[in-house]
Amino acid sequence: MGGGEVRDGVSLTNLEQPLFEGADATKRDLVDYLDAIGERFVAQLADRPLSVVRVLRGQEPFMQKNLPKYTPPWVPKARLWAESSRREVTYALCNDRRTLLWFANQRAVEYHLPLVRVGHWDEPTHLVLDIDPPSGGGESFGLAVRTAHLVRQALADSGLAGAVKTSGSKGVHVFVPVARATMEEAAAATRALAARAERLDPALATTAFIREDRAGKVFVDSTRAGTATVVAAYSPRVRPGAPVSFPVPWHDLDDVAPGDFTLRTAAPLVAERDPWTELMPAPQSLGADLIEEGRAIPVARVQAMHEGKRRARARRAAGQ
Question: What is the pLDDT of residues 203-232, one digit of tens each?
């Protein structure tokens, strides 16, 4: 297929190709959308090590953190040590329109960010509570919305406020901007807020990290802290219909659905304004009681790892 052009010095190719199966969109739709929202989007992405989900023709979607060798020299970069893989990873910093267009041409559909900026590794800018409803059934998003209101109440009870957006999938994300918090303090406060939300309605919400322990409840995920990533507001998702993660006023949250915001519909909504910036409260200080409560709560991933090993040993013993 043809269809090529140049924007801001970036050669754009194969623009009429389908983006991915079920997207109901072409690569041109992706490029045009990201270009249209570029100013709003880059303001979020700037100076944060970027992970993207790319969808190449004939391949399954894959997460790309380390930049490929053919990356143009003008793409800003940050090199970080990855403890999990025991190697240095070269991340992109999407600080300008040209870099964003290059990623669009690479068929980078999703854009995932950490909660810190380059050079400020122990200064998280936000807390995030990722609200993940159980799979199946048409009510899953509605359950996520109900749980988001629990999180909002837990925030208010803690003297805090946050902004909410659809995840672009079946859940929602609540962002809480913070000031003068270390990574450890922010992680502890996130765990405490998740626990406080769960206590408001334990029949609806759970903080159980192991899926089989959730009993069909909505998972309030407190693990998106520090260098863990979360999909950026306005990012498309690799989902049927190419939905977009989009900010919503709290008073409208009950009346929206993930499919309301897509590659084809979202750009006009940010043409004259930046809803994510408008809805985001000013950075807030975290209460000492919130941090101390969170410090007493085990880190979910670590606890789940140990519990998983314990259960595996029990299963082996039962089979003997």
Answer: 999 999 999 999 999 999 999 987 899 999
pTM for the model stands at 0.93
21 and 15 Cβ atoms separated by less than 8 Å: no
Residues 167-198 pLDDT 10s: 999 999 999 999 999 999 999 999 999 999 99
- CA 78 from centre of chain: 20
**Torsions phi, psi for 308 (to 5 deg):** -60, -40
Q: What is the 3-class SS of the chain, one letter each residue?
A: CCCCEEECCEEECCCCCECCCCCCCEHHHHHHHHHHCHHHHHHHHCCCCEEEEECCCCCCCEEECCCCCCCCCCCCEEEEEECCCCEEEEEECCCCHHHHHHHHHCCEEEEEECCCECCECCCCCEEEEEEECCCCCCCHHHHHHHHHHHHHHHHHHCCCCCEEEECCCCCEEEEEEECCCCHHHHHHHHHHHHHHHHHHCCCCEECCCCHHHCCCCEEEECCCCCCCCEECCCCECCCCCCEECCEECHHHHHHCCHHHCECCCCHHHHCCCCHHHHHCCCCECCCHHHHHHHHCCCCHHHHHHHHHHHHHHHHHHHHC
With CA atoms as reference, report the closest residue to 100 among 224, 234, 228.
234
